[in-house]
Design goal:
Layout: H1 2-21, H2 26-44, E1 50-55, E2 60-64, H3 66-85, H4 93-111, H5 115-133, H6 139-170, H7 183-197, H8 206-212, H9 215-225, H10 227-239, H11 244-264, H12 268-285, H13 290-308, H14 316-319, E3 324-325, H15 326-340, H16 346-356, H17 363-381, E4 385-386, H18 397-410, H19 421-442, H20 456-475
Parallel strand pairs: 3-4
Antiparallel strand pairs: 1-2
Helix pairs in contact: 1-2, 1-4, 2-3, 2-4, 3-4, 3-9, 3-13, 3-18, 4-5, 4-10, 5-6, 5-9, 6-7, 6-8, 6-20, 7-10, 7-20, 8-9, 8-12, 9-13, 10-11, 11-12, 11-17, 12-13, 12-17, 13-15, 13-16, 13-18, 15-17, 17-19
Length: 476
């Protein structure tokens, strides 16, 4: 298992460079690597957890267990879907090389159980993501990519200083060393991860970046890349129980903040991006079961971004008067049902499991967030549709959607115990109330929320305020 693990981690980087040298094989090699990750992730659910110490004196450690298995499986399935989506497009070998390097760096981040190797993985991830965002080479894409890279690098600078302080205090970079670290180290580390993970106000860089990127890149960013900052927070909450309440507080705040923006948003891609922020809050609100929710969210959100890219407009007001092709509408509805918690899809089990794992003080706020989810996705569910023989989608669109939506049906088995009468009634009532609120209130609302805090000038200021807030929390 050790040899297999090391080979699996190194394979995407090796194949990435090989595929650039052999451009005729680029998509085949990339798809092969992603399928290999599917197999490895499934293996983690039947094997005992593997702890691999690479450098004993520095605490550099890899941890592969069922929790990381959920995240790795998400990364693998989303990457397979994105490669299939781009299969017959004009994407060059450079695009596939960066995609598979991004896949490998996200895998590495999911496997890390120490701060220094996590830092390296996140930095490689940032560069690969930047190159994919800027891939169209337009002025706009280059600006969005540089904005992402700048924010990401500032956050990682804070993270690196925090990691050094942890080592200074504990003589180890391992996550467990955080117990002995000074408060400022905790604040710096958490700030870096909150920004990378798009959590709470630190994640306000995310809507513009995800909305303005190309469709397959948006699917990768929203489906898996942000989770590279989320899993370490989940690990810290599980390793050091004193941090569990802090992570849960940020989970609740993030779920409500993202939901609040999403219900008023009229742009499809921006609404999905804000909803990514909200759903990451669900992952953090119940860290012990966050893996299953992360898998479900990754499949749903990638499916929705790929489908949104096939709609005739990004403007929801225009879409209300422009019937969309019925098969595309069905794909949109299935994914929307899943994220709303409708039975027969994995979103149902993930939401039930998360709600059952909440602490009493979280319940009301998270139910409000679930109601907001139903309101947000009613915008897609009640769009007009018609059978249009002239409608065209990308050649690989349906293959990608089958992988993602098929995953939503199959993942139901993870928590089949959820199917009791009481568990089924509650989400159905929530969805019904959400649809009612949508038709009575939000469908007619024209409120446009200010984007002041999303501006580049203010993102660093928000980071500084978050650092002060984190210091206050850890010192309390």
């Amino acid at each position: 298992m050790i040899t297999l693990t090391l080979t699996w981690i190194a394979l995407p980087f090796f194949v990435g460079f090989i595929s650039y040298l052999l451009p005729k094989l680029d998509r085949y090699l990339s798809l092969g690597v992603a399928i290999a990750s599917v197999g490895y992730a499934l293996l983690l659910f039947v094997q005992p957890p593997l702890t691999l110490k690479l450098l004993d004196s520095f605490g550099v450690t890899l941890l592969l267990d069922p929790l990381s298995g959920f995240f790795i499986l998400t990364n693998a399935l989303v990457t397979v879907a994105v490669i299939l989506y781009c299969w017959r497009s004009d994407k060059t070998a450079f695009f596939y090389m960066q995609t598979i390097i991004l896949h490998g760096s996200v895998n590495a981040a999911f496997a890390c159980a120490d701060f220094i190797s996590l830092y390296v993985a996140l930095e490689v991830l940032s560069i690969a993501a930047f190159l994919l965002i800027a891939y169209p080479r337009s002025d706009r894409s280059i600006w969005v990519g540089l904005r992402y890279l700048f924010v990401s690098n500032v956050a990682m600078l804070f993270f690196l200083i925090g990691a050094v302080l942890v080592y200074q205090a504990s003589h180890s970079f391992a996550f467990a060393g955080i117990r002995e670290a000074p408060p400022e180290a905790l604040a710096l580390l958490f700030l870096g991860l909150l920004v990378k993970g798009g959590i709470f106000v630190s994640g306000l860089w995310l809507p513009l970046t995800h909305a303005e990127s190309e469709t397959p890149v948006s699917a990768m960013l929203s489906g898996v890349v942000v989770k590279a900052g989320v899993l370490p927070l989940v690990r810290c909450a599980l390793v050091v129980v004193e941090f569990d309440p802090i992570i849960r507080i940020f989970g609740v705040g993030t779920a409500l903040l993202g939901m609040f923006y999403a219900v008023f948003e009229k742009d499809t891609k921006r609404m999905l991006a804000f909803h990514t922020v909200s759903q990451l809050g669900f992952v953090l609100a119940a860290p012990e079961v966050g893996g299953f929710y992360a898998l479900t969210h990754g499949l749903v959100k990638s499916s929705l971004f790929l489908t949104a890219g096939s709609l005739p407009s990004r403007n929801l007001k225009e879409l209300r008067h422009t019937p969309i092709h019925t098969p595309i509408w069905i794909a949109l509805v299935i994914a929307s049902f899943s994220i709303s918690g409708f039975p027969l899809l994995s979103g149902f089990g993930a939401k039930v499991l998360t709600m059952k794992s909440l602490l009493p003080w979280q319940v009301i706020a998270m139910n409000i967030a679930a109601l907001g989810t139903a309101i947000s996705f009613a915008k897609f569910i009640f769009l007009p549709h018609e059978k249009d023989e002239q409608a065209k989608v990308k050649p690989g669109f349906w293959a990608a959607i089958i992988v993602l939506i098929g995953g939503l049906f199959l993942a139901n088995v993870v928590y089949y115990e959820a199917y009791t009468v009481a568990n089924i009634i509650k989400p159905l009532v929530t969805i019904f109330l959400g649809w009612l609120a949508y038709f009575l209130i939000f469908r007619h609302t024209t409120l446009k929320l200010p984007r002041l805090l999303e501006q580049f000038d203010h993102l660093i200021g928000v980071m500084s305020l978050m650092l002060v807030l984190l210091l206050g929390i850890v010192l309390a």
